[in-house]
Amino acid sequence: MLKVYGSQMCPDCIRCEANYREYRVEYEFIDINESLGNLKELLRMRDSDPAFLEAKEAGSIGIPAIVREDGSVTLNWQSVLEEPGLPVKEYVPSGTACTIGRKGC
Q: Is residue 98 part of a domain?
């Protein structure tokens, strides 16, 4: 089962969850705002996994972060849908933003 590290305040995480629910992708959502333990898990991964290099360089958190069953990490949540040929649906979350420009986290 996939693990999705994210936040309910993040528009990209909300879009990811909406798509995964729609297509019945099995995943566990780990909300980094729920506990310091969850945040520390993400930070340990972020500090050591090269999948986060671009996000760190851009000053982003790097969520949603998807951990696949084989342990590999991707920040491209859409790839989970695109690999089996499922179209990504656009959802516009209201009242959430990680940046002033209302872009991702």
A: no
Specify the pTM.
Answer: 0.86
Confirm if 4 and 27 have CB atoms less than 8 A apart: yes
Q: Tell whether 90 is covered by a domain.
A: no
CATH number at residue 60: 3.40.30.10
Give the closest residue to 4 by CA, choosing from 75, 90, 96, 85: 75
Q: Residue 105: count other Cβ atoms within 10 Å of its Cβ.
A: 20
Cα separation, 23 vs 39, in Å, equals 27
- The parent domain of residue 14 ranges over 2-82
- Segment 8-67, tens digit of pLDDT: 999 999 999 999 999 999 999 999 999 999 999 999 999 999 999 999 999 999 999 999
Which residues lie below 8 Å from residue 34, measured CB to CB, with a gap of 6+?
none
* Furthest C-alpha separation in the chain: 36
Name 74's bridge partners.
66
Query: Within its chain, how far is the Cα of 27 from the centroid?
Result: 11
